[in-house]
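User: Quick one: structure for sequence A, then sequence B.

Assistant: Sequence A:
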Amino acid sequence: MPRLFTGIEIPPAIGEALALLRGGLPGARWTEPDSYHLTLRFIGDIDERMADEVADRLSRVRRPAFSVALEGLGSFGSRRPHAIVARATVPPALGELQAELERIMQRIGLPPETRKFMPHVTLARLRGTSAEEVAEYLSLRGGFTTAAFPVDRFVLFSSRNQTGGGPYLVEDAYPLAPLEIG
């Protein structure tokens, strides 16, 4: 039974910049750079028949390519922080792609995603890290930004059912239409 999700790959140069943010935070389990991604829609553990249906429906998506940038760091969990993330910009095309994927998953019978879409790259998962330690880490690195990078495809990832996810495997890739310049 595969555990699946859709996402956007992070270019190697951006991954290298993110990797430089590793360290200096007690209780952090840092994400490996080759696992950096922006999740579009978590699908979960499904059977092979449903996985085939998901892949077929994703192959029908027709959306334009776009660019996205990472702008600032943050954390999830206020009183008990559980993750350090790099936040992504939300150009309209990204929001529209994510919304379409959500509609597709619901049409084929998967439950709706209950969390608001907040595009990000998870840098670390935290255990026993205080809010003060997170605030100090973010105050030193929170101004992190990247140049916009092109997104010309989204992918179907699989992962093992384990704490922290990863390693992630690209099961299939779905191209986005080239941007028309005119």
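Sequence B:
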Amino acid sequence: MVDVSAIAGTVSALKGAMDIAKAMIGLSNAQAIQVKVIELNAIILDAQRSAFSANEERAALIEKISQLEKKLAGVEAWETEKQRYKPVDAGDGNIAYILKPTMRDGEPPHYICANCYQQGKASILAHMHTHGMGDLLTCPLCKTKNLISRNYQPPQ
């Protein structure tokens, strides 16, 4: 939240500087002028500090907005990407996500890890080996192993 007190402090200090400058106009004593110059310098320094504080806060808010915009873009991109997949029971209670046939656009059929999918990532399961019950696939990101039953036929 913007620190209104920093902005108000700047305005107040500048108003004070203007008041001192007006008061100096009527002075003829050099010592009195010197005292007012010192007061004026102090008020100008306060105004500068307030302005710098407000500017630092503004820069921090701009950075925070930038980070949030990047995060939002990532979430929106994932929402689009995850619509390309559907969950399937790959046999023996294993759930995986498979690329929908209508979303392939030249890509071969493949599975992605259900664990990574739930975390907002699409990690393609890699084939480890085939054995009697089916194909053992593993996730390169989270190392989850998935047994895809021999009886399971992905949609064409």
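The helical segments are 4-25, 30-82, 114-118. The chain has a mean pLDDT of 83.

User: Thanks, that's what I needed.
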